[in-house]
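[step 3/7] fold_predict: job queued, chain A
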Amino acid sequence: MVAGFTGFSQFRFGPAVEVAIPTGDFADVYTLGYGLSARAEYGIGDHLGVGLQLGYIMLSPTEEAKDYIKSSSMLPVQLLAKYYFSEQQNGAYAGILLGVHNLSVTAEDLDFGFEGESSSDAYLSYGLGAGYVLNNKIDFNVRYNMIAPDSELDDAKASSYVGVSIAYLLGGE
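[step 4/7] structure written:
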């Protein structure tokens, strides 16, 4: 029984290059995000993979926002589940993500004597995506992530972005 289960299961991990393309109101403040992430995935059965993804993404403010934002970044930490359409951890898949995004912003120093302040807050996040694993080693992924709005701000809206990543996978067969 254990040998049968182990034969279907495999653990893989690897680094990824990330690009975040803000959408909606998030795009009014940021033009692009870029960074690195790491992911770990454990294969279960013939088609399912579960794991964890975490990263660091630097955000580039729009021209209008550069007067107020000195630097900004987000740290996504999300659980993931993938369904592979053909074989375990290879080929096309669809996936879901659930976790948190820690958003950090440092404001610019203002001309009338105020020094820029930094803030960092964590927000619930979730996403849907699809991807393709090539030769059991290269994982191309596109996903749509939503970051829940700040509940303490009136009329706050969710932030969203399209994430694109390319990962090099280690481990497994």
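[step 5/7] annotate
The two ends are 20 Å apart (CA to CA).
Residues 1-8 have pLDDT under 50 and may be disordered.
exit 0
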